[in-house]
Amino acid sequence: MKKITITLLSIIFLSIGCSEEFTDINPIGALSDSQLGNAQGVDLLLTGAYSVLDGIRQNSQGNEWGRSADNWVMDVVSDDAHKGSTDSDQADLFELELYNWQTANGYFLARWSVLFAGVQRANAVIKLINSIDDTGATLVSERAQAMFLRGHFHFELKKTFGVFPLISDQNVVDIEYNQPNATEDALWASIESDFTYAKDNLPSSRTGNYTQPGRPLSWAAQAFLGKAQLYQDKWADAKANLDAVVSSGAYGLHPNLVDNFKAATENGAEAIFAIQYSADDAQSMQGNATGALNYPGGGPFGSCCGFYQPTQDLVDAYQTDANGLPLLDTFQNSHVKNDANPNTESSEPFTTETGTLDPRLDFTVGRRGIDYNGYGPHIGKDWIRASFADISGPYLPKKNVYTNGDAANIGSGGWGQQLSGINYHIMRYADVILMAAEANVETGNLETERGQVNLIRGRAQSMATVKDATGADAANYLIGLWNDSWTDQAVARKAVRFERRLELAMEGHRTFDLRRWGNAEQVINAYIAVESETIVPFGKGQVYQSKHNRFPIPLSAIDGSGGVITQNPGF
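The structure corresponding to this sequence follows.
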């Protein structure tokens, strides 16, 4: 599934004929249901549903970058990332970062429309299977895959918009703006039901004719089910499902964090469910096209486009104490040295931070003077598109940028943009371990949680670090384990939440985590105040309010429904 030929995709698209008027399906020929009515035909249609995962939609609605499947746009709403580039570039995204949200913003429409397109494609597969008089194992697996995908797309809608029309295979002929918002309970019940069916009917290993790495295993479905329960504070249910995945032996942690972001190891032991990108599949929109803006604005990557820049607040979170433990309550009291405050030219000398740091920092954030993914030291201002003049700051993203060793695994688009073939992990095993740890702390199993958090920290402690030109550590790295027993639930909760940020930063999770924890308003407003001290242009009077815990439903969806769909409060 890494490479999908144009011929195959043409068959699929002609078969379902998605018109992109939101998700209205208008069959236009090529193959009928009777011609597709077998396991092979179903798999063609199923491949079309998988193809929506990457967010690439021809002639679709809204701003194309708003369809980003790796959720980098959502990170910009959090304390992990700035929009990047210049303030005037992508003005709609700039408004997202400043929490000046308008319902006509093209980023909201793009996300809404592409996720509903995924729902409709999954429903089309399920509806076709329902019409086939065959109960063979292959069709059972294909139904389970389609229900997993529908659960995923509905889950993303739930995380983003809160409440929305529930479209199933039973009302697939209806488009979502003809349906009212479903209730919270109905949406969660549907999501859990889909993941449960997938858990019970997907293969548990890649054997026989089920070997493609992009297809989920039953363990993946159980992990997503546990995640959905985590979002509802169903702690006991989440614990049971997530602990089962952790103890299954089906997955493991890579020796090195960076292995998750390299072509040779991207589908290794830590991969649970990932978008299978390819940069050599002969398609015009290949690779991670919705992430094409997120490369340094200079150096070996050319001049485009300098978006998705990590915040000073995120960098500061990687400071450690004398025992190598995170500064849970005090990390904002001191700042890792940067070259933007005071403004330092690339031609001027700069000394990097000498304090102790978690080594994961320099696999997550590009800092001046530290090797940048094998391309040599980040030289500072000359690699920053906005040149410190706007609110972007001095840092660069790393996880989404291919390493020098993977430079052959890229393509380019029509305007010369970089298109990486490195997968995006929608969920990886470290994420599952930390979700299990959360469920354990909320059910009073603090020592189990401590052990799970230490699994993640232990990998960071033993992995190879970023080196300088002499082969020595590029910074003063120090990371320790939590060796003392945890007896205070509040402290344990704070520790696991902080660990999620350190491990999963710049992977599209932070905004959703803050929202579900119920502390987004408090955390982000504190971040705005502190960030403005070091990234001075950032302070523009922006305020995060409770209404920002959900995206507004796009204005065109509200208008198209004639009032059937109701808007989220505050918009």
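The domain at 1-63+105-202+556-571 is CATH 1.25.40.890 (Serine Threonine Protein Phosphatase 5, Tetratricopeptide repeat).
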